[in-house]
Amino acid sequence: MKFANDFLFGAATASYQVEGAWDQDGKGPTNWDEFSKIPGKTFQGTNGDVAVDHYNRYKEDVKLMAEMGLESYRFSISWARILPNGRGEINQKGIDFYNNLIDECLKYGIVPFVTLYHWDLPLALEKEGAWLNKNTVDAYVEYAKICFNAFGDRVKNFITFNETVVFASLGYLSGAHPPGIQNNPKKYFQVTHNVFYAHAKTIIEYKKLNQYGEIGLSHVFAPAFAVDDSEENNFAAMHANQFNMNWFYDPILKGKYPEYVVQQLEKTGLLPDWTADELLLIEQAAPLNDFMGLNYYQPMRVEKMEGAVEHVITLDNSTGRPGNPSFDQVYKTVKMDDKKYTKWDWEISPEGFVAGLEMLKDNYGQIKLYITENGLGDEDPIIEGEVCDIARINFINDHLKAVKEAISRGVHIKGYYAWSAIDLLSWLNGYKKQYGFIYVDHQKGLERKKKASFHWFKNIIATRGENLEG
Ligand code: 8VR
């Protein structure tokens, strides 16, 4: 079986992780420009000042993507390039950069898939309380409208937010991301609501413009499975899915929050401060959502918690490591002997992907999906000067097969974006963990080099997935 002709094969990046040029051409500082420079916050003190200099080398990078046969490039816009202070005066050079990047993609027939917010918030807004402050919602909607007006004639796919669960939980529960606040579930839930509200307002504004494009958002997709068949662990998995899936997907797709979570939050006093008008708007916006983007790396294996467990975060492995408790200490994630893991302890599970997609279909029907991230973080072996990332080839092969399988079971998937197009800066884990099809040599002035996976993926795209192994 081949993937349909309108299925998009793509790859993704995020502005802070690739662009560099942190203060070039009038860009304002962001929360990450500040946070990454606080000693001890990132692995080996790495920051995005230069990253892989995509800002200055986008032509070379897009040319390589075209050579790979990539049909779509998912990248994010840095808000602070467009609006250095988060609102107010527009920086024309920022608009120019993204216009050039978009035009460069279109020159090769690459569909630009644009994320409006992949975690880099203008510092001025961070100082006002970031996503805890409802004024940030209004500033975001204005910023989004500027992007729609500037780029919407050529960009027909917009993602409002990337992985709300990550920037909210790392920002306010584990403290590993800005603003670095720990153990504050009240703020965590408030941030999630404010973001869902911003998403709702934005898609309503987008539809008013009649640009005939599509808009949605990208969520982490980490379906939870109980480690065994016991009643208590099944309960733990249900609880995990309610808090990590339904709380995030329901307001977008169903227009209202899941009853189970709302009840729990009412009991514990953690319900966000929301108004009837905000809830109504979220309800009105839901049918306007065109698609959901899923970022799948691994499922969660969960079991009921006995006694208190401490949340462990290390800089070389900041997210996704099993062994951490839920904020409410109801369940914890565990590593299982019969599963395979990456060097960063992320489970490798194409089976979990298929099972999770079926779960999603049962919950939400045949909504339109894009896999907006999926990939393997690894330290790629270099043999006689060649980057032999065979493990990545196997990983993507198996996950594309899973996508095929899910499509054959009636899941509506319209595209697959590997994370990432090119090796890039990990938010906290430095450059050691690689994800790309294109290698960047930090010893040789950021020279680009094609990996084995580059050639492999080119063939997969050219044959529309007919040659997947196994
Ligand atoms: C996604 C994020 C993306 C990347 C990938 C891989 C980290 C990293 C945590 O959750 O959208 O930005 O972020 O995961 O892992 O290493 O920087």
Give a nutshell description of this structure.
The protein has helices spanning 15-18, 31-35, 54-68, 79-82, 92-107, 123-127, 134-151, 164-172, 185-208, 231-253, 259-268, 276-285, 350-364, 390-408, 452-462; strands spanning 8-12, 72-76, 111-115, 157-162, 214-220, 224-226, 291-295, 300-304, 331-333, 340-341, 347-348, 369-373, 382-383, 386-387, 413-419, 438-441, 447-450. The protein is of the alpha/beta class and 470 residues long.
Characterization of this structure:
The chain is of the alpha/beta class and 470 residues long. It has one domain (8-301, 340-462): Glycosidases (TIM Barrel, Alpha-Beta Barrel), CATH 3.20.20. The protein has helices at 15-18, 31-35, 54-68, 79-82, 92-107, 123-127, 134-151, 164-172, 185-208, 231-253, 259-268, 276-285, 350-364, 390-408, 452-462, and strands spanning 8-12, 72-76, 111-115, 157-162, 214-220, 224-226, 291-295, 300-304, 331-333, 340-341, 347-348, 369-373, 382-383, 386-387, 413-419, 438-441, 447-450. The radius of gyration is 21 Å and the shape is globular. It starts with 7 loop residues before the first strand and ends in an 8-residue tail after the last helix. The mean pLDDT is 96. The structure holds ligand 8VR. Ligand 8VR binds at residues 14, 17, 162-163, 166, 295, 319, 373, 419, 426-427, 429, 433.
